[in-house]
Input
Amino acid sequence: MENKQPIRRQNYSALGQPVGPYCHATAFNGLLFISGLTAYDDSGVSKPMDQQIDAIFAQIRRITEAEGVGLDRILKVTVYIKSTEHLALVREGLNRHYQGAYPASTLVEVSGFFSPEVDIEIEAVAAL
Output
């Protein structure tokens, strides 16, 4: 029987309990896969796009810091937005949080989210 590397599925008390069948992040082989996050359970929901981005990155920061790394260890993000009309605000917000440590990135326009107040969702992969 082969020796399989462990998979660690993690929820973070600072983010509250997930409301669906998922965990906040999964760690495997030195990588941390962070679930898509929104400002829904934070002070940023129903706020302008830049404030939603700030709320999401506050959550991502809580996760990476709990794992002992910073935002500079983010390797890849996928950004889902309801409308590309906010693209300039999205780019500005992402740039502010990356602080020059640019990850690989994908941006997708979607028709909507689980709640009409949500305008953006971001998932990330970080190196541990």
Notes: The first strand starts at residue 7 and ends at 10. The chain has a mean pLDDT of 94.
